[in-house]
Design a protein that fits this description.
Elements: H1 5-14, H2 19-27, H3 45-48, H4 57-69, H5 78-86, H6 91-104, H7 107-112, H8 116-126, H9 132-152, H10 155-167, H11 174-186, H12 207-227
Length: about 230
């Protein structure tokens, strides 16, 4: 079984006035990359930095300039992750950042804080050549954390945890990733987007949240399909 791309594309095209919907269509190879300038300030950088498309070069350059101008201390780790994904961190700065994170991220510390900021730190680190002891600790942590996110129905966080796990794949059994595929495929709605509304909440996900959940679900699924 694979996810229903046709339904997802239909949902995104129905919401074509949303610039992030168009961005996800580009990621899926289903749209041109011309953006109405009046909507560019609404682009989610979380999606933009992960989409490789020559037509987005000027928009990424604008984001890169904004990231360079910002002070790291005024933002959470996502700012530095965006810099990393945009290629504006020197190799020396990447190395220094990795060493800084490694010195601060002990298992006891991770257990005290489970949030997006930590997940982006771990995603950055897991792309590097890390000590075996840290990878073993990270695999134990992510293995349990992914189950927690699935039970809490925190889709973006779940997808990020799977992407981290894939970067240290040899520390996991294949069944872990097979279960992740099954979960992600299951949460695609009949309308195409990923993530059902919480039946116990009066609030429903807005279009941007549906797009963001769908983007991370697709990114995780495509990486899972490629590596399984």
């Amino acid at each position: 079984m694979v996810y229903n791309k046709e339904n997802l594309v239909r949902f995104l095209k129905l919401n074509h006035l949303n610039v992030n919907s168009k961005l996800l269509l580009i990621y899926l190879g289903e749209s041109s990359s011309s953006f109405p300038l009046k909507h560019q300030d609404q682009i989610m950088p979380e999606i933009l930095v992960e989409v490789n498309n020559e037509g987005l070069k000027s928009i990424k350059e604008k984001l890169a300039f904004e990231c360079i101008s910002a002070n790291d201390k005024d933002f959470d780790f996502r700012l530095r992750y965006f810099k990393y994904r945009l290629g504006i961190l020197s190799s020396q700065k990447e190395k220094q950042l990795a060493e800084e994170l490694l010195s601060n991220l002990a298992f006891s510390t991770l257990m005290k804080c489970v949030d997006l900021d930590v997940l982006y730190q771990l995603l950055f680190l897991s792309n590097r050549n890390l000590p075996t002891s840290f990878n073993e600790m990270l695999s134990d942590y992510i293995g349990g954390l992914s189950i927690y996110f699935a039970r809490k129905y925190q889709i973006r966080e779940f997808a990020l945890s799977i992407l981290i796990a894939l970067n240290i794949r040899k520390y996991f059994e294949n069944t872990f990733f097979e279960d992740a595929v099954e979960f992600l495929e299951y949460i695609q709605t009949n309308l195409g987007y990923f993530g059902y509304d919480d039946p116990f909440s009066r609030c429903t996900n807005d279009v941007n949240q549906k797009i963001l959940n769908s983007f991370y679900s697709i990114m995780a699924l495509e990486n899972l399909y490629d590596r399984l």
